[in-house]
Every structure is written in structure tokens, then in C-alpha cells.
Design a protein that fits this description.
With 432 residues, the protein is an alpha+beta fold. The chain is 57% helix and 17% strand. Strands 1, 2, 3, 4 and 5 form a five-stranded antiparallel β-sheet that branches. It binds adenosine-5'-diphosphate. Adenosine-5'-diphosphate binds next to helix 9 and helix 11.
């Protein structure tokens, strides 16, 4: 297939070169031959005119012209019949009008090129027979042909080199594409130049690096998801085995509670994954509606009341009555996740403050601050990624999907989320 493009391109270029050389060659050689003939005719015309003037002056009979002027290359004769000259109608008319008329050139094996010049003089038909050298025309033809062939050869070499130069990067691209098709996303091609093929190569490199990134994300996602499912499943399996053996009533209760909790974690995990997937694909079944944000935040606080009471969290609330158009259930996920994290990462007896207000610019602002240990700058750049947990040991409660969901939902409502964190605590700010 590769050599096919090469052949096609080379053939097209060669064809164009042949046409562009051949046409000027034919036109030029015809034109040059005509010019040379015209020069010869002019010269002959002047010479005949001079001969006629001379016999006129000296009162010499036309029959004697041959004795005076004829040479090896020139025969002068008197003809009786005009038909022997094989003239066309136009030439005959010119002849009758007293003009000098030239016949076509004929090739003679010994005498070269022959042509006749005729004129009617004092009622007689005078005919000059000229011989010119065939060599002039032959040399002209040969030199023309030589330059044509050398130009064609040069054109052929240039075409092959140029075609190879153009085709080679395409061949490399073809081989690289085959490697990508076989699943190798590490393939990169050298980038140089600014032409269309270089741009194609640059785009190819961008594509493979993005595909490699997606592949990495996919692999990480699969390993994260497997890990998140495996931990609760192992716990459920372990405690179910313990239940099979001998155990007290209290122990049974405790094991069952753990199994229920782990099953709940699994179901939350599955729900979260499905929710993220739906948001990412824009596949949201519920309708948008007017949502009272302050009321929703209060409800979210009630939902995790048990947890913040357990930790003796000091809550500072400042909520303006504000409404936005949005997806109620999804917005609820934003508040529960952020409040849950603030409580989770707060120290015992810590303070969490929540504010909701409208800026003078008209934008709605939600701010939640805690006095937890904060997030390192390195972790801040990753916390919105799926399954990311700053605590790499994954001992902490949660599956690392909460903030990914929060970010996706905020963006779905055309909002932005930012985090500001230090060792004195973290502040999450949302702008709608
Ligand atoms: P998780 O469900 O594990 O909490 P999130 O996506 O909600 O997952 O959060 C991701 C990570 O961001 C958490 O594991 C935690 O390390 C960090 N994080 C989130 N919120 C806070 C916070 N308020 N204080 C400190 N770290 C936080």
C-alpha cells in the first residue's frame, strides 16, 4: 500500500513534468523552424529582386539569368507551365500579382533541402531552385531533443527524491498508527517543520499521549474500584465466617452490625460510581427546579447531626435565604459531602463555620471552614480526582469519590469550587 502512494505520486508528478516540457518543446521547435525559413525567404527575396533589377537595368533577357547567376546551390530556369510548381490557389494569385512565391521544402537524399522561388517577369515564369543544408534543421532538432531528455531525466530524479521526502513521514506515521492500533500508546514520532504533515505528526503525538493518559486513568480506575469493593467484601466474608462459628449473642449483634455497615458502604460506593457516571455522561433523569439552598443545607446538617454531636463540633451558621435553579438531589450531595468531610477531619470540639450569601455582583457564595489538620499543597491538586484520598493508607472512612461528585455537580450548575487549606484547617468555597 505504501509503495502504491509513492508510485501514484511519482507518476502524477512525472506526467506533469512531461507535459510541461513536451508542449513548450514542440511549440518552440516549430516556431524556430518557421523563423529560420522566414529568414531564408527574406534573404532569397532580396537576392531575386536584385537580380531582376540588374537584368532590367542592363536590358538582359531573362533566359540569360541562369548564365550569370546559377551556381551549385542555385538553378535558375524558365518554365512554361505554372502547374509543374504544385502551387495552391493563394500562391497562384500572388504569382499572377507579380509577387515572389515559395514552394514547400522537399528533402533530397544528395542535395539536402530543396525549395523553389517563382516570379512572373515580363510574361515569363522564372523559377529559382535553392538547396539549403538539412543539417541546420537536424542540429536544431537534436539539440532540442537532448535538452528535452536531460530535463526529463533531471525531473525524474527530482521527482523520486521529492516523493520519497514527502512519503517517508507518512510511512512512519502509518507504522506508528499500526502500533497504536495494537495497543501501544507510548509511540511518539519526531516533530520537525511547520507543514501539514508535521502538523499531522504533532497531532498524532498529542493523540497518543492523551490515549495513554486515558488508558492510565482507566487502569487506575479499575484498580481503585476493585480495591474499594474488596475491602468491605473481605470484611463481610470474614464476619460471616465468624457468625458461622461459636459466638455469644453480643458478638453476633456486633458482627451483624459490621456486616450491615460494610454492605451499606458497598451500596453507597456503587451509588456514587453510578451517579458520577450519569453526571459525566449528562444522563440525568430528574428535572431542574427552584431549590432553596439554605433549607437544603439545614437538612444536610440534620442528616449528619449524630456525627457532629458525637465530636462535639461547634457549628457557626450564617445562611441567607437563597434559591437557585438546579437538580435538588444532586445539590444535596454537595452539602452532605462537604459537611461530612468537615466533621470527619475536624478535631474533637473543633469549630465548623458555614456561610451562604449573595455577593454584590449577584453571585451566590457557599463557604465551609473547619479546624482540621488541613490538606498539603501536593494533595490539594488531587483531592477532586476520583478515589483520591490524602491518607494513602486508605484507613480513613470514605471512598474518595465525595469531592469528585461535588465538583461535577457544581460544574453542572455552572459553578466553581476552590479550596484553601493550611495546617490550621480547610476552607471550601463554591460560587454559583
Ligand atoms: P472521602 O470520601 O474519602 O472523604 P473525598 O473525595 O470527599 O473522599 O475527599 C478526598 C480527600 O480529600 C479525603 O480523603 C481527604 O484526604 C481530603 N479532604 C477532603 N475534605 C477535607 C477536609 N475538610 N479536611 C482535610 N482533608 C480533606
Amino acid at each position: 500500500m505504501r509503495s502504491c502512494i509513492f508510485r501514484e505520486l511519482a507518476t502524477v508528478i512525472l506526467f506533469i513534468i512531461c507535459i510541461t516540457l513536451l508542449i513548450p518543446y514542440l511549440v518552440f521547435s516549430k516556431f524556430t523552424a518557421r523563423t529560420i525559413q522566414a529568414e531564408i525567404h527574406n534573404y532569397v527575396r532580396t537576392s531575386i529582386q536584385r537580380q531582376l533589377d540588374y537584368i532590367e537595368q542592363e536590358s538582359i533577357a531573362p533566359e540569360q539569368l541562369s548564365d550569370i547567376y546559377a551556381t551549385n546551390a542555385l538553378v535558375i530556369q524558365l518554365m512554361e507551365n505554372m502547374e509543374d510548381l504544385e502551387l495552391n490557389e493563394q500562391q497562384k494569385t500572388l504569382l499572377e500579382a507579380g509577387e515572389i512565391v515559395f514552394t514547400r521544402y522537399r528533402s533530397h537524399p544528395q542535395r539536402g533541402l530543396l525549395f523553389l522561388a517563382a516570379v512572373r517577369y515580363r510574361g515569363k515564369l522564372l523559377v529559382w531552385e535553392f538547396h539549403t543544408s538539412q543539417a541546420i534543421f537536424d542540429r536544431l532538432r537534436v539539440s532540442g531533443l537532448l535538452s528535452l531528455v536531460s530535463s526529463l531525466l533531471l525531473g525524474l530524479i527530482c521527482t523520486l527524491l521529492a516523493t520519497k521526502h514527502v512519503i517517508q513521514p507518512l510511512q512512519r506515521l502509518d507504522a506508528a498508527t499500526q502500533r497504536v492500533a495494537a495497543g501501544d500508546f507510548d509511540v511518539r514520532l519526531p516533530e520537525r517543520g511547520k507543514d501539514e504533515i508535521s502538523s499531522l505528526i504533532r497531532n498524532f503525538n498529542v493523540m497518543t499521549s492523551k490515549l495513554g493518559g486515558v488508558e492510565l486513568l482507566r487502569n487506575n480506575f479499575i484498580s481503585d474500584i476493585s480495591h474499594e469493593f474488596k475491602t468491605p467484601l473481605t470484611a463481610i466474608e470474614g464476619y460471616a465466617k465468624l457468625l458461622e462459628g461459636e459466638c455469644s449473642k453480643e458478638e453476633q449483634q456486633e458482627y451483624l452490625a459490621i456486616i450491615q455497615e460494610e454492605a451499606g458502604r458497598l451500596s453507597t460506593l456503587a451509588e456514587n460510581i453510578l451517579m458520577l457516571n450519569r453526571i459525566e455522561k449528562g444522563n440525568i433523569t430528574s428535572k431542574q427546579q427552584q431549590v432553596r439552598l439554605d433549607e437544603q443545607i439545614r437538612r444536610a446538617l440534620t442528616l449528619c447531626e449524630g456525627r457532629w454531636e458525637q465530636k462535639d463540633i461547634q457549628l457557626q451558621l450564617s445562611l441567607e435565604e437563597l434559591t437557585i435553579q438546579g437538580y435538588e438531589a444532586l445539590l444535596m450531595q454537595v452539602w452532605t459531602n462537604l459537611i461530612d468531610n468537615a466533621v470527619k477531619f475536624s478535631p474533637q470540639g473543633g469549630q465548623v463555620s458555614i456561610e451562604l450569601f449573595r455577593q454584590p455582583s449577584g453571585r451566590i457564595v457557599f463557604v465551609i471552614s473547619d479546624q482540621g489538620s488541613g490538606i498539603t499543597p501536593e494533595n490539594v491538586t488531587h483531592i477532586f480526582e476520583k478515589f483520591y484520598k490524602a491518607d494513602q493508607s486508605r484507613k480513613s472512612d470514605g471512598n474518595g469519590l465525595g469531592l469528585s461528585i461535588v465538583k461535577q455537580v457544581v460544574q453542572l450548575h455552572n459553578g466553581e469550587i476552590a479550596v484553601d487549606s493550611s495546617c490550621a484547617g480547610s476552607t471550601f468555597t463554591i460560587l454559583f
